[in-house]
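Record 1 of the preview.
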Amino acid sequence: MKIEASAPSNIALIKYMGKVKGSTGNLPTNASLSYSIENMRSFVTLEPAPGDADIWSPLEGLTPIQLSSVGLEKFLNHFKRLKQKFEIPGFYHIRSANNFPADCGMASSASSFAALTLATSQLAVEVTGRPALAKSELSQLSRLGSGSSCRSMFSPWALWRSEGAEPLDLDVRLEHAAVVIEAGKKPVTTSEAHLRVSSSLLFEGRTERAELRLEHLVEALRTKAWRSAYELCWAEFWDMHVLFETSQPHFSYMNADSMRFLKQIQHVWEDTGDGPLITMDAGANVHLFCRPEQVLLAEGWLKGWRTIKSWSSSEVSV
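->
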């Protein structure tokens, strides 16, 4: 028996950064809004394994993953939690990989844990005969392993407020490309970033700022007010990165090349009055979202940069 599943990465335009103090299971301090990138995916397979423990190894044929000891423990613990929930007996060999770089601010944790949750739920159906769970229930379970993974259960738009995410009905389709400034592992993990940001003096008021931006961004997207949407996304990721810079101890993901590309896109808006939406996750890389009719223009904006383009009309290209 072999179970296979995959899930997309999702990039938040209103960020999940900061967890409710004293809570367990990755409860966010504010709601977040994300867009799922269907062409940027994680893949997981499950097969019975001999012995008395679950094991993990990279899935061959895709971008190799090198899990740290902490990352491996977290991944296997999530699988163990799901097995207990679904009453799945025995031990399994988990293999996983992405078709894009991991641990560098591209939401590979979100897609990986979502794919593992989906695979394990399929395994439960096969082994126990229990009915398949709804995506809303799987979203809540996936959140226990990686908070942002709960949003990868829905596409393209997902809204996450507390226990799990839900789809958001927005008649807006966007095209995505990532500018790969750094493809290596981040110096500070996202989990550590969640802990440190609460020490920033600017964290007070973060929930209110993010919630207000969320309300305004959804309205801007619904009404196709692109300039307003761009400014809200811009303010939101800067809000998060300033928290990094002012935490104790402080840290930074941005570098000179990040800033250079951001300035380039600022000039696009200043010169033409239009352009893409821009955001950054917890990493140096920059995410560009454009409207389908802007794809040819986007090729020009991205010229000279190392990119991962996931236009809907093609496979992921690097």
